[in-house]
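Ticket #4471: structure export looks truncated?
Reporter: QA, pipeline team
Priority: medium

Steps to reproduce: submit the single chain below to the structure queue and open the exported record.
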Amino acid sequence: MSRILRLVALVLTALFVVGGVLFALGYAWDDPGGWTALLLTLLIVVPLIALTVLAARSPGLAGAVLAAAVGLFAVWMVLTLFVDVADVPDLPVIALVLALPVAVLGRRHAARAGGLLLALAAVPFVSVLVRWVGERGPEGPGLADLLGGSTGAVVVPLAVLAVLFLVAAAVGDGEPAVPERTRHDRRRFGLGGRAGIT
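Actual output as written to the record:
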């Protein structure tokens, strides 16, 4: 059950991230387009691929790198509360870029992935909450309206995906019973499975 939940969470995360990134890049190529859109595409796609490959090949190192990246994401969010850095939906895009490698990490470390995804959901939620408190009034936007915007749109999906990984960790140990390489080596040398030493 744990393995199934992790796989479902990974697939749903991949679909959510790919859809969100394509949506964001579509706007970038429509306006401003040209070299600016190409630069934005590279800034999104290159880290997304690099971190995903790292999570697939080196889960231990990826866990530390992604935890640091989420921390820097939180620092960036605080900075944007005081400084208008760029007129782009940076928070949701950064959350998407980090979500897929975190989900790949969740194949082996479900609890860690669930915690990181919760943190990823919390960062834009805090940003939306601060904005809501600052603009609250008779004519100001409601919290539901802000959650429906580009920044808030990533909060609920990421939180749901985080819960899936946390449930996967709760019903299992969150890790494969035996690492893939170890199982392969045991079969190869006749130490497990149906094959014996011949």
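Status: closed, not a bug. The export was complete when the record was re-opened. Leaving a note from the reviewer for reference: Confidence is low (pLDDT under 50) at residues 180-198.
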